[in-house]
Amino acid sequence: MLKGKMVNLRPMESEDIELIKVWNNDPVFKGSYEPLECNSLEDLKAWYHSERDSRWFIVENKEGEPVGQIMNKIKSDYYTVGYIIHQNYRNKGYGTEAVKIMIDFLFLSTTTTRIEAQACPENKASIRILDKSGFKHEGTIRKAMYVRGNHLDANIYGILREEWNNPQALRL
Fold first, then answer.
1. Is the pTM of this model over 0.90?
2. What is the domain extent for residue 85?
3. How is residue 28 annotated by DSSP?
């Protein structure tokens, strides 16, 4: 388990699949910037047992309640991260701390020199998380995602090892 001051990140377990099904199938949880999904429990179990390229974590508050999810995925010589916090727990700093913990974890446990994330230009909350976590805006991929009948742009953000203020959030 990766421990912070406000949240902990624990690896996703097979017992979490039911919760992930609820979250993935909830358009309010997914918000305006994530594609709609309709996943069966069997689909998610198959995904969980076949996924090899990414590592998924449940974000928990200090009371042990699941408040979101965060993942990292290797892309060639660097990692990408993605996250989502349940709507009842947004604007409390949980997302920012979860991202900082993930940055610390990746820079402390791998030799990667770069971590990347994407956010729609309209997703001000996600951009704020990335800014607070030390990411820099690097460019925009036009019409990169199809979400709820619209093609949305994706801003690319990156943080390099030499820009990282280690460790910010992770308590070892």
1. yes
2. 2-115
3. H
